[in-house]
Amino acid sequence: MTRDCMTSFEKFGVVGGGAWGTALAQLLAAEGAPVRLWAREEDVVAAINAEHRNPLFLPGAALSPSLTATSDLGTLSGLDALLVVVPVPYLRAVLAALPAGDAPLIFCSKGMEAGSFDFPIDIAREIFPGRGFAVLSGPTFAHEVAAGLPTAITLAAENPALAEGLARALARPHFRPYVSTDMIGAEIGGAIKNVLAIACGIVDGAGLGLNARAALISRGFAEMTRFGLARGALAETLAGLAGLGDLVLTCTSSNSRNFALGQGLGRGESAAVLMADRRTVAEGAFSAPVIAAAARADAIDMPITDAVARLVAGETRVADAIQALLSRPLRPEGR
Ligand SMILES: NC(=O)C1=CN([C@@H]2O[C@H](COP(=O)(O)OP(=O)(O)OC[C@H]3O[C@@H](n4cnc5c(N)ncnc54)[C@H](OP(=O)(O)O)[C@@H]3O)[C@@H](O)[C@H]2O)C=CC1
Ligand SMILES: O=C(CO)COP(=O)(O)O
């Protein structure tokens, strides 16, 4: 029997000790199930093992003693499934160092790789051809999941049996995966909402009002839909938890690192300074220029994404970017 046909997944590993990797590991370990987490930094490994905390990336969360950490990727073998929660710019290098095996890989990162224009599943297919893959994405602030607050999420895998088996294994009374076969839709939703959260943060930081934010969410969703449909995503995925759901969450809260980065830009702070000062990721800052370039290459109109890319690169000022968006020719709403 292949892993894809397994009906139960009991032993999970988590690759990545940031906020989201730690929260997912805690979700699975909360009732005492053993979960092994790989983190790059020895400080994170030591704090999880000795104090059952991750003060660097998930301060305030008490972690289960059954969650153990390692800095040795080689020890993540012999498990039933691995959740991969590494920011996309570092993903290829970490995957290349993973031990071989047939445990399905569940991708939880939200971004697109520079240069290759690859999403996580594309990278994984190159490194592990034939392995089972899934995407887990939706409106899920890590600290809320770690605190056991109600959360729903999309779990997509091409093989419906794999999606259903993983959903059953990950579901908790307060954590509800909805299954799908549309991995590309789930990946695109998560990557583009990060960029649009920066845009909404900019509008907030610049004091441009709530009408402007609602307009950005709607017109941003139109960009996500154009890009997604052109790459074979299903409209229902983009309108679901991994697309619109996550867009609403991160475009309306400064708990979003992407939104908070945008707020700084909107207040007139320099992108270079805002980026240099941070330890946590705002994936949208990495992905904006990549998605904007991919859209240009395919002649997909994405003016908001393009504006965020230029603002993050310091190539334009907020007032000029807003003026450029507002002075585009009038058009039918459906385009
Ligand atoms: N936080 C959240 O609420 C959610 C986040 N996500 C997504 O999950 C992914 C991870 O985000 P998150 O957990 O929040 O990250 P954090 O910002 O909390 O932490 C940054 C992570 O990046 C890692 N990192 C930094 N440099 C490198 C490197 N050179 N090689 C490998 N790893 C490196 C850090 O590891 P190290 O300690 O070793 O530096 C750390 O695990 C992102 O794609 C994000 O969009 C998805 C849903 C929710
Ligand atoms: O993806 C997230 C919630 O779904 C977290 O958003 P940020 O990375 O912007 O904090």
UniProtKB/TrEMBL annotation:
Matches recorded under PANTHER family: GLYCEROL-3-PHOSPHATE DEHYDROGENASE, GLYCEROL-3-PHOSPHATE DEHYDROGENASE [NAD(+)] 2, CHLOROPLASTIC
Binding of NAD(+), residues: G16, G17, G18, A19, W20, G21, A142, R257
Domain of life: Bacteria
Coiled-coil ranges per UniProt: none
Gene that produces this protein: gpsA
GO biological process: carbohydrate metabolic process; glycerol-3-phosphate biosynthetic process; glycerol-3-phosphate catabolic process; glycerophospholipid metabolic process; phospholipid biosynthetic process
Gene3D superfamilies found in the cross-reference section: N-(1-d-carboxylethyl)-l-norvaline Dehydrogenase, domain 2, NAD(P)-binding Rossmann-like Domain
Residues noted as binding sn-glycerol 3-phosphate in the record, renumbered to the chain: K110, G138, T140, K193, D246, S256, R257, N258
EC supergroup of this enzyme: oxidoreductase
EC number(s) per entry: 1.1.1.94
Keywords per UniProt: Cytoplasm, Lipid biosynthesis, Lipid metabolism, NAD, NADP, Nucleotide-binding, Oxidoreductase, Phospholipid biosynthesis, Phospholipid metabolism
Family recorded in the similarity comment: Belongs to the NAD-dependent glycerol-3-phosphate dehydrogenase family.
Catalytic activity annotation: sn-glycerol 3-phosphate + NADP(+) = dihydroxyacetone phosphate + NADPH + H(+); sn-glycerol 3-phosphate + NAD(+) = dihydroxyacetone phosphate + NADH + H(+)
Function according to Swiss-Prot or TrEMBL: Catalyzes the reduction of the glycolytic intermediate dihydroxyacetone phosphate (DHAP) to sn-glycerol 3-phosphate (G3P), the key precursor for phospholipid synthesis.
Binding-site residues, NADPH: W20, R40, K110, A142, R257, V281, E283
Pathway assignment: Membrane lipid metabolism; glycerophospholipid metabolism
Species annotation: Sphingopyxis terrae subsp. ummariensis
UniProt protein name: Glycerol-3-phosphate dehydrogenase [NAD(P)+]
Organism lineage: Bacteria, Pseudomonadati, Pseudomonadota, Alphaproteobacteria, Sphingomonadales
Start and end residues of each Glycerol-3-phosphate dehydrogenase NAD-dependent N-terminal domain: 13-162
Active site: K193 (proton acceptor)
Subcellular location: Cytoplasm
Cited HAMAP family: NAD_Glyc3P_dehydrog
Listed GO CC annotations: cytosol
